[in-house]
User: Fold this.
Amino acid sequence: MAQLLMQFRWVADVDVEQPNETKPNLRFDRQGNVSGTTGCNSFRGTYELNGSQIRFEVQTLTKKECTDEQETRFLQALKQARYLKANDEGIAITGSGSELLVQLKTGQ
Assistant:
């Protein structure tokens, strides 16, 4: 799973509500760092991967004013993330009860 994570920029499969915002995305590196955007603000943090179990910690976040709740939902999904599951669409991030929090697809 670790090798797959580091190969691509991962984009959340969500509908963008505001025309000036983009889809949230993530990039992983070998040192356990993660970076990306919430669709509005950029962030950096760390991740810990143990088999299919994952934990995220967002450490820095830019402070642009966001006009919808996409950022809040995405950051909450990262906070609640417990598992990664590869599927036909990419990678599913799920919570402790296996509920889908966010579906990631490879970015172009």
Observations:
- Residues 83 and 98 are 8 Å apart (CA to CA).
- Helices lie at 2-7, 70-80.
- The longest strand covers residues 42-50.
- The radius of gyration is 13 Å.
